[in-house]
Amino acid sequence: MFKFKTLWKNKVFIVFLAVVVALAPQAAARPAQMLSKTLLTTVGINKVADGYEVSGEMIINKADQPQSAERKTVMVSATAPTIGEAVNKISASQGREVSFAHTTLIIVASGLDGEDVTKPLTYFLQKTEINNGASVVYTKDDPKALIEASIKQAIAQGGMLGQTAKYNQDNVIGKPTSLETFFKDSLRKSATTITPVVALDGEEIGNNLAIAIFHNGKFAVTLDEAQSTALNFLQPKKTKLRYNIAVDEHTVATLIIQQKKSKIKTSFRDGVPHYKIQIKTTAKVEELSSQLEIDNHLPAVDIEMELVRKLSADLVAALDAVAAEGADILNLYDIFNRRHTHALKNFMADKNPSDLVRHATHEIKVDVRVYS
Questions:
Q1: Beta bridge partners of 194
Q2: Which pLDDT tens digit goes with each residue over 339-364?
Q3: Domain 226-372 CATH (choose: 3.40.630.10, 3.30.300.210, 3.30.160.140, 3.30.70.100)
């Protein structure tokens, strides 16, 4: 039978008990949040003079709030020579380890322009608990200001930033630009990635459909809402968008445009790659607003002509801007390689993959039918 008297004579047990008694008051007084993790739903990365600035939207632990309160978030940030050190600073300031398991958005700021952003993003990809489906977005604003604005507009996971990014992805890019997708795209032959752009409009998150183009992991160019909308008509899926055009100096037409068909024809002309984009759409006039006090009815042919002109001009501007950076958003290298293997091999003999879009010529044909 076990005897307590025997246990009391054991010196090891006595030392253990003394340590427990000494540390018990400290353990009891330790704040509840020390026993949990710092959950970041949004992370912003920027390059500053002192290194990297990491910002985050942090979920306030329930232990720090009244029991009846809804879950709230606050902005935290730190600057250090490396991403890892900045994250460690946030951990130290909060007294608990940072966790990215609930991260849904990673903001890449313009301070990283000219740098291969896959390198700082590698830190997050290496974290075992990271959400690989977290969306990557681009901004020219301060990530801290964006996160603070998002928190003010909507106290919820993802907030206004997440909603804006999702709307952009669904209506322009056609698929989420996740952390995993960003890395996979950067390894392709064309090495081109498209991300949503988030921006401030005053003190709130702006609702825009601009996109950022990354080439070889580096920021290349941003396309405005008109250019990115025009590119949307090249999506394989059937696209339906609300579109505003100025028919003349007095009249604006609001149209519902339905893409019917889009295709790319390729060829070589005098040894140079050439592609022709054909788009067929229909458009229904939703509203005509005129500054003149007259009947604002306009013939469909006038609207068709202006719509063809605008779509074509926006598409040319977008393709030229991207091609100037050597970014292949249409995957032309793969298309030409599949259809014209021998001709492409001869053309690319003394060139790199980025030269294809820089040298390729193009033409655009837009066919529109407008209904009242």
A1: 213
A2: 999 999 999 998 888 899 999 999 99
A3: 3.30.300.210
98-140 residue pLDDT tens: 888 888 889 999 999 999 999 888 888 887 677 777 889 999 9
First to last CA, the chain: 97
Q: Which H or E element spans position 11? A: helix 11-29
Q: How confident is the model at residue 225 (pLDDT cuts 50, 70, 90)?
A: confident
Give the pair of three-digit tokens for residue 94: 């909060």
Six token digits for residue 8: 């009391």
Residue 131, CA atoms < 13 Å, CB-side half-sphere: 19
Distance CA 167, CA 254 (A): 20
How far apart CA 327 and CA 319 sit, in angstroms, is 9
Domain boundaries, the chain: 28-223, 226-372
SS3 156: coil
Dihedral class, residue 202 (left if φ above 0, else alpha if ψ from -120 to 50, else beta): left
Residues 6+ apart with CB under 8 A from 69: none
Q: What is the pTM of this model?
A: 0.78
In 77-203, which ranges are continuous DSSP H helix?
83-94, 118-125, 143-153, 159-168, 179-187
Place of tokens 């952390």: 179
CA-based nearest residue to 145, from 185, 202, 89: 202
pLDDT in tens, 253-285: 788 888 788 899 999 999 999 999 998 888 888
Spatial contact of 99 and 40, defined as CB atoms under 8 Å apart: yes
